[in-house]
């Protein structure tokens, strides 16, 4: 076991899930330290790690941990991550923000895809949730058939916008049930209950949003795709609470057969094939919620790309596979290397 794992930003939606993942997976650490600004001083009860008093962040305290999981803003991470990892214990910093994702010297890691040595770097970036969820199905298909084009449309839950996003959706629906109306939004740009919003993050010069470009940039980096492979995404916020869904169309280098692809995905880590239309079984965010595996289904030959193309739908828990679980899996690899 290592001596200590720290969670910085422990009281947010992702931070809370990080603690649960450490517990669920019986993470090999003597102690967990929790850091947050507003929640400092409160006590969190855990089964495996006892009662933990939340601390205000300090560099010295973070440097006492062998591993620090960051669920904080990019600005915080930009300032503190290098300092934390530069401490006496060479703390492994795993950052959930986008601050370091596109820095060449910082690995962007999904452990089942490009983990191993990459997870042992002093600072490791966790991908955006939309990328991480889609990558679980796309990577095995890429390895076997070679991706040429990826066209993704997303159905992203309120949880992607954090605890405040989830609260605004829940409050709005309760309010509608009582009064038949929903108050103007304070957090999202538009009302989310009974609506969909085709904008997540800021618009870029090319007309795509930053959320959409993250899928392009991050799949390129994680899979090591050449510039010839084109990835395009339309990202949409939908009024579900948790778990992102994605409709994906791929064109492949080699011929692809849906039955063979289904079998391949059945044997791929982090994936659960749910694909029996005759029994009305397909991936849905409600079923994916709380689960570590990404559900993949509606697998069919693409009308557009014929025998060189596939279309499918997936749902994966954004807070787990898309954030907390991925970070904890990276931490497990980092710790295994430390203890070896
Ligand atoms: C979202 N992917 O769903 C973002 C969060 N990182 O808003």
From TrEMBL:
Coiled coil: none annotated. It catalyses: L-aspartate 4-semialdehyde + phosphate + NADP(+) = 4-phospho-L-aspartate + NADPH + H(+). Its EC number is 1.2.1.11. It is an enzyme of class 1 (oxidoreductase). Residues 4-121 form the Semialdehyde dehydrogenase NAD-binding domain. Keywords: Amino-acid biosynthesis, Diaminopimelate biosynthesis, Lysine biosynthesis, Methionine biosynthesis, NADP, Oxidoreductase, Threonine biosynthesis. Belongs to the aspartate-semialdehyde dehydrogenase family. Homodimer. This is aspartate-semialdehyde dehydrogenase. The lineage of its organism: Eukaryota, Sar, Alveolata, Dinophyceae, Prorocentrales. The chain holds residues 82 to 421 of 421 of the full protein.
């Amino acid at each position: 076991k290592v001596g200590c794992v720290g969670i910085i930003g422990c009281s947010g939606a992702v931070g809370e899930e990080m603690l649960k993942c450490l517990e669920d997976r019986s993470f090999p650490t003597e102690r967990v330290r929790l850091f947050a600004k507003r929640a400092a001083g409160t006590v969190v009860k855990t089964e495996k790690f006892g009662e933990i008093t939340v601390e205000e962040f300090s560099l010295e305290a973070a440097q006492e941990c062998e591993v620090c999981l960051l669920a904080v803003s990019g600005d915080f991470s930009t300032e503190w991550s290098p300092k934390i990892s530069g401490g006496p214990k060479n703390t492994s910093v795993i950052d959930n923000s986008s601050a370091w994702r596109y820095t060449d010297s910082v690995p962007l890691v999904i452990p089942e895809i490009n983990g191993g040595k990459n997870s042992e770097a002093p600072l490791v970036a966790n991908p955006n949730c939309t990328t991480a969820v889609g990558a679980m199905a796309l990577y095995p298909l890429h390895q076997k058939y070679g991706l040429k084009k990826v066209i993704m449309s997303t159905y992203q839950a309120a949880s992607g916008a954090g605890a405040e996003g989830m609260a605004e959706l829940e409050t709005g629906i309760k309010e509608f049930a009582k009064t038949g109306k929903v108050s103007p939004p304070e957090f999202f740009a538009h009302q989310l209950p009974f609506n969909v919003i085709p904008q997540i993050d800021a618009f870029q010069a090319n007309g795509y949003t930053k959320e959409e470009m993250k899928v392009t940039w991050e799949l390129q980096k994680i899979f090591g795709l050449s510039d010839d492979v084109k990835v395009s995404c339309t990202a949409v916020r939908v009024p579900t609470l948790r778990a992102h869904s994605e409709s994906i169309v791929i064109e492949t280098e080699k011929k692809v057969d849906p039955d063979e692809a289904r079998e391949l995905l059945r044997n791929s880590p982090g994936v659960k094939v749910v694909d029996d239309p005759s029994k009305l079984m397909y991936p849905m965010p409600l079923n994916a919620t709380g689960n570590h595996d990404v559900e993949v289904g509606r697998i069919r030959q693409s009308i557009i790309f014929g025998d060189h193309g596939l279309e499918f739908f997936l749902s994966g828990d954004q807070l787990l596979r898309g954030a907390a679980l991925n970070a904890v899996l990276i931490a497990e690899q980092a710790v295994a290397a430390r203890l070896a």
